[in-house]
Design a protein that fits this description.
GFO_IDH_MocA-like_dom; alpha/beta; NAD(P)-bd_dom_sf; Rossmann fold; Dihydrodipicolinate Reductase, domain 2; single chain; six-stranded parallel sheet; Gfo/Idh/MocA-like_OxRdtase_N; Gfo/Idh/MocA-like oxidoreductase N-terminal domain-containing protein
């Protein structure tokens, strides 16, 4: 006798940010999810957003965020609100037994995040941050190379860059330019990705100390537009990153091992939606007369039927489905990874505020 397919997880979205358009598409592409509600502070805006993004006629539009959380048909919520609102609405969502997919940066500091995670734990709801590249199949393939002791060896150094120059309108009007909405600026936005990449390459080992570099750039309101930092680990490996709203679009991770090297040019958003390339060198030597290297670098291209954001939704919805249908425990690793990322973000911010002094990362 054929078994029925699992019921789709029903999402509500609170907020009509631009990123919610991308995640709405991802929810519809994911085979185990759908959207049943959208909420905005303006009912007209919610109605228009639903229409523009192809929501089914059955989806409810609400003129408040709380109305989405009060909808009994909503299983989970995606929260793309400004960072300053995450604590309030993620905690309320958890208390109302809605599973939480939270846009990054997830909080203004680790104290806020701890309250969010505690609320999710107390209510038995799944938490995940919306760092999409973590879910691309390329990421697992790259990790397999980094775990190969013969080809890669011992991790020695990591460098990551995520920058984009989105022009004067972005720098003037985007919420990431406003200290009352997204006070972490580039550090919380593009820097979050860089820090996550370093932790991912390091098997989520936290650095011993973090030291911000002194070339921080700010807007007139004091929001960080670009910054960088070095991370020193207890086993002497080193990591650095640079994040910016003022430099050409660049999305790179470079990982150096004792025997090998990995580089990816588009880790945040693949240049092509259906394929993700990366490059590796293993046991590289200079060729005779030092006129080249051997063996030549190898390029891998990892194909995917679903874009990484849909794979993120699919994984999140799968965890939610197991909880709802089987009474499974929540998956704790996503909260732990978020917390470690936030700890490093906080340390960079503290180093900047203390005149670029080294800051010890304390769990």
């Amino acid at each position: 006798m054929a078994t029925e397919p699992p019921r789709r997880v029903r999402f509500g979205i609170i907020g009509c940010a631009n990123i919610a358009k991308k995640v709405s598409r991802a929810i519809f592409l994911s085979p185990n999810s759908t959207i049943v509600a959208i909420g905005s502070r303006s009912l007209d805006k919610a109605i228009a957003f639903a229409k523009e993004n192809g929501y089914p006629a059955s989806a409810k539009a609400y003129g408040s965020y709380e109305a989405v959380l009060d909808d009994p048909n909503v299983d989970a919520v995606y929260i793309p609100l400004p960072t300053s609102l995450h604590l309030q609405w993620a905690v309320l969502a958890a208390r109302k037994k809605k599973h939480v997919l939270l846009e990054k940066p997830v909080a203004l500091n680790v104290g806020e995040l701890d309250k969010i995670l505690e609320a999710c734990e107390s209510s038995g709801v799944q938490y995940m941050d919306a760092t999409m590249w973590m879910h691309h199949p390329r990421t697992a393939e790259m990790k397999a190379f980094l775990s190969d002791s013969l080809r890669f060896g011992q991790l020695k150094a990591v460098h990551s860059i995520f920058s984009h120059n989105s022009g004067t309108d972005f720098l003037k009007n985007d919420i990431r330019m406003k200290p009352d909405l997204d006070a972490l600026g580039a550090l919380g936005d593009t820097g979050w990705y860089c820090i996550r990449a370093i932790l991912w390459a390091s098997d989520y080992q936290l650095p011993k100390t973090v030291t911000a570099l002194s070339n921080v750039e700010y807007n007139e309101l004091g929001v960080i537009l670009s910054c960088g930092a070095s991370l020193q680990f207890r086993d002497n490996k080193l990591a650095t990153f640079y994040c910016s709203f003022l430099s050409n679009l660049t999305m790179e991770i470079s990982v150096l091992g004792s025997n090998g090297y990995l580089r990816v040019h588009d880790f945040v958003i693949p240049f092509q939606e259906n394929v993700g390339p990366f490059y590796v060198n293993a046991n590289t030597k200079f060729a005779e007369l030092s006129i080249g290297i051997e063996p030549a670098p190898t390029e891998y291209s990892i194909e995917t039927d679903l874009p990484q954001e849909a794979l993120m939704v699919k994984e999140f919805a799968s965890l939610v489905g197991k909880i709802k249908e089987n009474g499974s425990e929540t998956e704790k690793k996503w909260g732990e990874i978020s917390r470690k990322t936030q700890l490093v973000v906080d340390a960079v911010k503290a180093s900047i505020e203390k005149g670029f002094e080294p800051i010890e990362v304390i769990v």
